[in-house]
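ARCHIVE CARD
Drawer: 12
Card no.: 0347
Subject: one protein chain, sequence and derived structure
Cross-reference: see card 0346
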Amino acid sequence: MAHKFVCTTTEPVVETTKGKIRGYIMDGIYTFHGIKYADAKRFQMPTEVEPWEGVKDALSYGEVCPMYNPETTKGEIMVPHRYWVKSEDCQFLNVWSPSVEPGAKKAVLFWLHGGGFSDGSSIEQVCYDGTNLAMYHDVVVVTVNHRLNILGYLNLEDYSEKYKNSGNAGMADIEYALKWVHENIEKFGGDPENVTIFGQSGGGMKVSTLLQMPSVDGLFHKAMIISGVKPEGGMVTPKDYNARPLVDAMLKELGISPEHIEEIEKVPYGDLAAAYLKVKDPIAEAGGYVGGTPVPNDYYVGEPEEVGFREHAQEIPMVVGSVFGEMSFNPSVAKKHEKTREEQIAILRETFGDATEDIVAKFEAAYPGQNLIDILSIDCFTRLPAVNYVMKKASYHKAPIYNYLFNYEFPYDDGKVAWHCSDLPFFFNNTDKVMICNKPGVSDLLEKRISTMLTTFAKYGDPNHSGLPKWEPSTEEQVKTMVLDEHCEVRVNFDIDLLKTVKRFVPNPFLKMKKRNPDDIALH
């Protein structure tokens, strides 16, 4: 295939509200990397970017937020990554579009990356590239960096009015990115009145948080949560939290008195993060506030599960789903498909004991034909909260909410069930970039079904399309789940009893991860 690249002194140039920017065109897709959407000083609310004269290049990805943990090459076969330059000045977004005609009015997909609220970036996973979605589905794709971890979610407002709402600074960055889209995306061929926010893992949690923020009403119109309903045991700041023990301990470690709190702005990030990581564990073990997640206040009213959906959030069409295996870290059972049913049950009995037969019967009813050993990997702690979330949202009868479960077996380790992040190449139409996804005659079709599900929902608020069976919205009593697999089908309340039974025998992986790092419960 012959590719065509265009980037001249005058093409493509788009005029934003702050000034002109230049991107490039590759195979007809207009691409702009590293657009600055806001500025911000440490622990303070974002501010507008100053206008400029002339034309700025948008040809390189912008810096990503610093993170606690160093990069690692572990697991690259499962989730290929890209790492990038880090800076606290990280308010950048990227745009892919099939047109820059102001009247094109393409549906807009606004992506929020995973990594809990502490890690990740808009380009971290190889599959986050928006080219194929724009090219094959005629949509505009926007991905965004914002402040993370203590830079984005550490509440210092008790110490100075200057730091008001600092516990939600990362979400405020996202608000400014959505405002940028509202004010500018029409110049990039997008429709500012048809914006869908979607995110996975921590990005899905940010989607849920945005639904509960009055200041972003009208900036998006549909929402999709991919493996990102907050799980049991993680990622919620209690309403009665007290930030002072954590911050006082950090200040003591840094040699800063509370009366001179502003000196914290000058501390190098590495020293700031080291102080935080040193003092947080005893506070976390005592159940105290350790930062790293949005704080409930007038800006963000709290999670729907705790306070209910805001009236405007009730009116937002949604898709919510997860994958079969999620956070299962059990080693694969070698040659599981060669084992007899009796051998499979014997392996299960080591975990489930006398309940094995009951669990097997429930599993075979829920997942007919699937290998019994997969029960050891089934997710209870993401899917059950997602089911509850769906039923609660449906109970308002204001907008449709659809549920799905990704249950594709990958050609890896003698057949590996879907794990956290494994579905993302299918959503982004990028299985060509992630080799582990590919099965001849199978993965291309599933990729088309899932990416079309996403983009059809973005265009029309309904994920149904000709490649899938008819899929009705869920109700408060019936969760109608589209099972996305080699054969796709809709099942109703099909696995809830199974999951509740299995849950009694397996540890909550999120509690383990919370103990290790309270901010990062997601593989990213």
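Annotation on reverse: Residues 514-524 have pLDDT under 50 and may be disordered. The first strand starts at residue 5 and ends at 6.
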